[in-house]
Amino acid sequence: MSGPDLTALTAIEAASEIARGRFSAEDYTAACLERIAAAESEVHAFAHLDPEYALKQARVLDRLKSEGDRIGPLHGIPVAIKDIFDTADYPTEYGSPIFAGRRPTADATVVRKLREAGAVIIGKTVTTEFAYFNPGKTRNPRDLNRTPGGSSSGSAAAVAAGMVPLALGSQTNGSMIRPAAFCGVFGVKPSHGLISRGGALTLSRTLDHVGAFARSIDDLALVLDVLVGQDSADPDSRPYASPKFRVSAAEPPPIPPSFALVRTPMWEKADADARSAVEDLAKELGAREVDLPDAYRDAWSGLRAIMAVEMAHNLGDFVDNGGEASKTFRELIAEGRKVTATEYLAAIRDARRYADGMANIFEQLADAIITLSARGVAPLGIEATGDPVFCTLWTLTGFPSLNVPLLANADGLPIGVQLVGAPGRDERLLRTARALVEQLAEAE
Q1: Which of 24, 96, 151, 204 is the catalytic position?
Q2: Lowest CB count within 10 Å: 94, 355, 391, 411, which one?
Q3: Within 13 Å and on the Cβ side, how many CA atoms surround 430?
Q4: For the residues 29-35, what does the mean pLDDT come to?
Q5: Residue 175 falls in the annotated catalytic set
Q6: Marked catalytic residue, from 96, 175, 237, 248
Q7: Is 82 a catalytic residue?
């Protein structure tokens, strides 16, 4: 269609224009599909896509609106879904040939909530095999010769390429924040238990989180308003008061936000230019520097033990039954079966200790922790997905975290800034992030 590029709009902007009748859900979905058609042959973000079905959903939404039905906050907004979430109308194959052709009969809880809010489920995005390390076909829209990260690679790339304004992902170690950093988009990993995992592939009950990608903080707040809530299908989901993420994110903080720079014991693993960029930003913000005790060095091996044990328990049978799986995945299953019960339980115990030990940062020093999202810019090559080392501690503790695309290297490639908040204070973290983005924009 001629006229302005609708794919340049954020989700909130598009939803507002659709509600006002400036264009239809079908118009907006068609524009996204045109963008997908133009870029998909290079980016390879989608595992399953049915353009005509997506348009059919949009037409139904337009008809309901024309008949005076109440419209939801995501009315007419295309959302891409990582291919580990069940969808009743698309295959869900977990990035594995073992599940090729698998057709669920019901939606995952998050997909159902999106539909109820008026979203168009435009398609399923590429995930690494079983949402682990073996990469899929997706390339980074910022540089097609570089990895988009993993395991939510297709979702991050789809948003970065302008194919969709919103996409769902998940994180068990660094699978939301790292691809958001590499692809230069906003990404949120909420507090553990904030969003239901019902109907999603279970890797690790202790570590699995559901999150989202967008091109603005306000869009993340919009989708969190839709997704957050207790669900009997997820044993770890918690009661939550009526979500008001969008309202909270838009409110100016009562006082200027304060930050704490936490390098973590892995700081020397980062590229020098990435370290310098975040340290300079922290200095500009007046962030207090916090050094974690030496005991925190064990957090990375602790997450690895928990992840290996629980993935071996949940997914090992697929390997045992002769299914086609990568060497990387088979090695993880074997590793998990060698971890002793004592080691596993100690790792679970220590995770709680790490979280408790950092509580005073938020109580006494800062509204948010500032740190790296990844070791640096996206590495060259698509044979690996990059190192999740700067996400591990925040996944293990269940703290909410955001990638904020604030920085870039000399070549213009994004360097992710990770903001981490106190558990259960996700709304405050979004408000702090929005204030930071606005502050830096005004300083330019």
Answers
A1: 151
A2: 411
A3: 30
A4: 98
A5: yes
A6: 175
A7: yes
